């Protein structure tokens, strides 16, 4: 169906929410609408006349061009998911459709491609599927960045990995990233929390059982090792595993086979083991609470995840990511954190680590649906931190104020001078001098 | 590969190695989808093509090591995310990202110290470009971003 002659086609194109651009047969851009400029991060005027691959930096431009396939094959393409990289360096997932363009005589004179930003859709899908890649682990911390740089190499090997870190520090996130970077990524990722399942049930849960193995075993049941075949088995809280079961796990690691409960037939296993714990496994191995041989077997590669209090530089980054996620999931329009709220968040110790930060912001989202999260939106325990009341209300001499601030900060950090110095932004010598001078008169 | 000669006003050279992240005869649109990494040595009177690598298994992480090992001081490429660039920075290889154009044009611009003229539309000069990448002089040593 043709447009009536008095309706300007260009006005329609400009009104579309989807990006549209056209090229001639030499791949020069001949039209680039406003939405295309918004998604690609380029002003339409700068795009016109340029080669499409110089403007639209997509995952297909170097060898797998969808538009070329449409023009060469005289066919159309719809809803192919790719990504583009904007000039500011951000990667944007987009869905593209393409088709050849013909003149009145039917001759192909170029092509048209439409595209839409599917960032929100992609993030929701990742949330639902629990997919995690390196891009999902956010950090500016040098130690953690070094660990991240090792991840692809560790993922490519078949060795077990032991993830050590406090509760909430992101051990499962790393485990999922390792799985998704590994050659086993097409296989299942099966997680078991060894601390959440009673010891007597854990063996059946891991290895399965055969009918009649125990009173309630009315049918054969596959265990997690069988379910994870071809993929990755993540043993969370492995430090809580009973000693008797540790022996059986060690045998699986060495023999690559296991027997379901009640069966004497060995089954081969094709599973990569990732284990994690928040306990001091080395100390447990020294005291005999954890098998030393299993500790070394599981810890072929050991990754230590620092607690959030040791990487305060990540707090604004993580907070912004959580705010984005909650805005998306809860359809709210929170724009960020107020300066006071951010300061308070940076000063908190986070015994619950990243999970605690997530919970704090989730609470704030209950109270706020738009604008910036303020101090008043944070949980009570954050609004009245110990030591805060000691701070003077800007009274007394400068020496007294400095002394009180130093004492309060030291108290907040359990007397640790380096932590206090980091928060106050002063050197250890300055802190020592302030304390030595005292509050003055 | 043909030798690409400098224009007469090119600054004196000191055998600097430069790598171009390519697709065919042009710079690849994205660093991470480049299909060939072409190595060039800038000499006093000519640019010598020294060879070409495919993207190694494992992607950009091993590539950064290869380039550093080969004495490459500058990687010129198309679009790139910060995540892609950091591997090269870590190995001390300066990167001039968001450059577009055919290989011959890029080499010519490098020789004339005018890589900024080939900046992709919408892109802002990188730190390497802002510090005036000059393959013909020792200045390059200070351009690692």
Automatic annotation (TrEMBL), chain A:
<dbReference type="InterPro" id="IPR002078">
    <property type="entry name" value="Sigma_54_int"/>
</dbReference>
<dbReference type="InterPro" id="IPR027417">
    <property type="entry name" value="P-loop_NTPase"/>
</dbReference>
<dbReference type="Pfam" id="PF00158">
    <property type="entry name" value="Sigma54_activat"/>
</dbReference>
<dbReference type="InterPro" id="IPR058031">
    <property type="entry name" value="AAA_lid_NorR"/>
</dbReference>
<keyword id="KW-0547">Nucleotide-binding</keyword>
<feature type="domain" description="PAC">
    <location>
        <begin position="78"/>
        <end position="130"/>
    </location>
</feature>
<feature type="domain" description="Sigma-54 factor interaction">
    <location>
        <begin position="137"/>
        <end position="366"/>
    </location>
</feature>
<keyword id="KW-0804">Transcription</keyword>
<dbReference type="InterPro" id="IPR000700">
    <property type="entry name" value="PAS-assoc_C"/>
</dbReference>
<dbReference type="Pfam" id="PF25601">
    <property type="entry name" value="AAA_lid_14"/>
</dbReference>
<dbReference type="InterPro" id="IPR025662">
    <property type="entry name" value="Sigma_54_int_dom_ATP-bd_1"/>
</dbReference>
<dbReference type="InterPro" id="IPR000014">
    <property type="entry name" value="PAS"/>
</dbReference>
<keyword id="KW-0067">ATP-binding</keyword>
<dbReference type="InterPro" id="IPR003593">
    <property type="entry name" value="AAA+_ATPase"/>
</dbReference>
<dbReference type="GO" id="GO:0006355">
    <property type="term" value="P:regulation of DNA-templated transcription"/>
</dbReference>
<dbReference type="InterPro" id="IPR025944">
    <property type="entry name" value="Sigma_54_int_dom_CS"/>
</dbReference>
<feature type="domain" description="PAS">
    <location>
        <begin position="12"/>
        <end position="57"/>
    </location>
</feature>
<dbReference type="GO" id="GO:0005524">
    <property type="term" value="F:ATP binding"/>
</dbReference>
<dbReference type="Pfam" id="PF08448">
    <property type="entry name" value="PAS_4"/>
</dbReference>
<keyword id="KW-0805">Transcription regulation</keyword>
<dbReference type="InterPro" id="IPR035965">
    <property type="entry name" value="PAS-like_dom_sf"/>
</dbReference>
<dbReference type="InterPro" id="IPR013656">
    <property type="entry name" value="PAS_4"/>
</dbReference>
UniProtKB/TrEMBL annotation, chain B:
<dbReference type="InterPro" id="IPR036105">
    <property type="entry name" value="DiNase_FeMo-co_biosyn_sf"/>
</dbReference>
<keyword id="KW-0812">Transmembrane</keyword>
<keyword id="KW-1133">Transmembrane helix</keyword>
<protein>
    <recommendedName>
        <fullName>Dinitrogenase iron-molybdenum cofactor biosynthesis domain-containing protein</fullName>
    </recommendedName>
</protein>
<feature type="transmembrane region" description="Helical">
    <location>
        <begin position="60"/>
        <end position="85"/>
    </location>
</feature>
<keyword id="KW-0472">Membrane</keyword>
